[in-house]
Amino acid sequence: MKQFEVNFDGLVGPTHNYAGLSFGNVASLNNANAVSSPKQAAKQGLLKMKALSDMGMMQGVLAPQERPDIAALRRLGFSGSDARVLESAAKQSREIFLACCSASSMWTANAATVSPSADTADGRVHFTPANLTNKFHRSLEPQVTGNILKATFANEKHFAHHLHLPDNEHFGDEGAANHTRLCSDYSHAGVELFVYGRHAFDPSKPAPTKFPARQTLEACQAVARLHGLSEEGVVYMQQNPDVIDQGVFHNDVIAVGNQNVLFYHDQAFYKKETGLKELQTKFGDTPLHLIEVPTDEVSVQDAIKTYLFNTQIITLPNGDMTIIAPTDCEENDAVKRYLDKLVTLGTPIKSVNYFDVKQSMRNGGGPACLRLRVAMNDQELDAVNPATLINDLQFARLNKWVDKHYRDVLAEDDLRDPQLLIESRTALDELTQLLKLGSVYPFQQG
Ligand SMILES: N=C(N)NCCC[C@H](NC(=O)CCC(=O)O)C(=O)O
Fold first, then answer.
1. Where is substrate bound in this sequence (predicted)?
2. Res 224 pLDDT > 80
3. Could you tell me if the ipTM is greater than 0.90?
4. What's residue 2's pLDDT?
5. What is the best residue among 21, 248, 373 to mutate for testing ligand 1's pocket, by most ligand atoms within 8 Å of CB?
């Protein structure tokens, strides 16, 4: 049986903008109100997808969400025509309005947690959309995310789709950004590492004091139960509360894994030794490559600034691993020095490829935020909606679609323009045809 890890990248939506919505995410706060380029952002994302496909990887795409979210604004009491809803929301409550315009669904690492069939009790691939309760603008995503996942993985024999966890901070769930699957190869049972920021029901346990811990232990445990994971196949570790307070709002800003490699900063985890020992024990006899980056080589601040750990580690068809890093890593002396050294250390990681994803980075999203990993065997891959897989033809079509519908620049005032809403809906309607998704958006469902 063949085995693959397919990266499903989020397509950047037509309202990509910088609104400073994510308290605890330093880049988001620092770039609030900067002018964005939705077209450039979407193209940077597409280029990364195409490059991975050209490397011989299977690459997929997930559709963005409808923004501005008129349905959410109506739910909050704004009424009248769509144009009137936009105008009154922008005038009466700038914060609510901006939150309902965010294209944040582009970071598909936060779309869902995915457990491959080799790990689950019923032998299907399981998906639970993340509820993203900690940020209002992101809490608007899970319903439509579920629709898009169901239309992309539309086969009940192979794929099980769960409802997102209850919309409450006790079950705050940020999806794959806090979940790493380690395995000897993708189609064999692995160990799923869930990383949480706090205990919801036990305030006596350590927790950050300045910035929020978005993920709870209780949410991780609920997802593991839903997916039918065995106790021997799961490890829970707590993120170091101090690094959350420094701006590490997801575990994937400080650690990343692939197959038998875990690459992490020495300050990433609370009770690190115990957790890593359990991980190695459950992983089995073959040794894990635990690549720990010391603070005196790369500070936490440099890791946050450059997203050294928000890189993708992928296994190329020849078996070597490569790192997909943002160009920001290349531009920082300490991080570049570390990466140059890393490829000489005799670990499975043999090379680094740099990509310009600055439009996403300015909102705190690196290469790894932009993708949702789905490990599959060949039968499962055959059951995926083929229009969502990237090849030369689909890449060309999507580029053309972006050229036709996306604006070059977008400033805050543009978001209240009713014409932007019409443009976005027209674009998304066409996209659902391109990707053969059916009606996944509220505006298509009447
Ligand atoms: N690390 C991972 N996996 N994902 C990155 C998500 C970035 C996103 N930024 C934002 O939502 C900012 C939007 C704004 O400020 O306009 C967030 O904080 O949830």
1. 19-28, 110, 137-138, 214, 252, 363
2. yes
3. yes
4. 87
5. 21
